[in-house]
Design goal:
A hairpin with a 2-residue loop joins strand 2 and strand 3. The chain has an eight-stranded parallel barrel with strand order 1-4-5-6-7-11-12-13, surrounded by seven helices. By secondary structure, the chain is an alpha/beta fold. The protein contains eleven helices and 13 strands. The model has no long low-confidence stretch (mean pLDDT 93). Helix 1 packs parallel to helix 3 and helix 9 packs across helix 11. The chain is globular and about 45 Å long. It starts with 5 loop residues before the first strand and ends in a 7-residue tail after the last helix. It has a single domain, classed as Aldolase class I (TIM Barrel), CATH 3.20.20.70.
């Protein structure tokens, strides 16, 4: 049985100068611009035919604060599709409280790299289907990696970063993806710092490297400029889901338009 490819809008949420939650959009994890209210955007995407919805608190880990669970509760009240929440999740208790606030899944990056057994604890306590490991990857053109891919005629490897892409870890993305899978991760959420916000297409070498290494479903993220890019990441890289932000936030495309395009191309899509 062929599994349906999923289309997932994502909001990056931070606190504004008045301490209120707001959605921001940037390029390469920088130069963030105000985009809208998280609850209003969640409501809109729920009504537009999205398969799932992702809420990322983009500074919780870097600032060492807890995830804004009150806002998560408000978002969860507005949507009836699976909700994934990430940012600032470091402990089993954080997972529990985020799920209790209305999330169906939690996305963990920095907390899992700092304490890999958190993946196992979360999977055993709440089920693998709740545990999504987020990988914020960047390209490195040196000899420090373990698995290499060809990018624009050069050999590169992909490094895991933490704290919203602010810090490198020296950890190879392919090796980390395999470990996360072995520890019970239910999905892998692969973000490309190099492609983020560019709207020039997903990082196909990165996504394919992860998809080829694991059996766990892979969500491709960063760089989507239109439905053609989603088709490419599904067919050339083998992704199970495609996440996008800017093209939906700025109404370049509707989720319906994207799904109809992919359906016409013969991909299994829920219309």
């Amino acid at each position: 049985m062929t599994l349906t490819k999923r289309i997932i809008p994502c909001i990056d949420v931070d606190l504004d100068d008045d301490g209120n939650a707001a959605v921001y959009t940037g390029v390469n994890f920088e130069n963030l611009e105000y985009t809208g209210d998280p609850v209003e955007m969640a409501r809109r995407y729920n009504e537009s035919g999205a398969d799932e919805f992702v809420f990322l608190d983009i500074t919780a880990s870097a600032d060492g604060r807890e995830t804004m669970l009150g806002v998560v509760e408000d978002v969860a009240d507005e949507i009836f599709i699976p909700l994934t929440v990430g940012g600032g999740i470091r402990t089993r208790e954080d997972i529990k409280e985020t799920l209790r606030a209305g999330a169906d899944k939690v996305s963990i990056n920095s907390g899992a790299i700092a304490k890999p057994e958190l993946i196992t604890e979360g999977a055993e306590s709440f089920g693998s289907q709740c545990i999504v490991i987020s990988v914020d990857a960047r390209r490195r053109f040196d000899e420090q990696g373990e698995h290499y891919a060809q990018v624009d005629g050069e050999s590169c490897w992909f490094e895991c970063t933490v704290k919203g892409g602010r810090e490198g870890t020296g950890l190879d993305v392919v090796e980390w993806s395999r470990e996360a899978e072995s520890r019970g991760a239910g999905e892998l959420f692969v973000n490309s710092i190099d492609a983020d916000g560019t709207e020039e297409g997903y990082d196909i070498p990165l996504t394919k490297s992860v998809c080829d290494a694991v059996d766990t479903p892979v969500i491709a993220s960063s760089g989507c400029g239109g439905p053609e890019d989603m088709y490419e990441v599904f067919t050339d890289a083998g992704a199970d889901a495609a996440l996008a932000a800017s093209i939906f936030h700025y109404d370049d495309y509707s989720i319906r338009e994207v799904k109809e395009y992919l359906d016409e191309k013969g991909l299994p899509i829920r219309l």
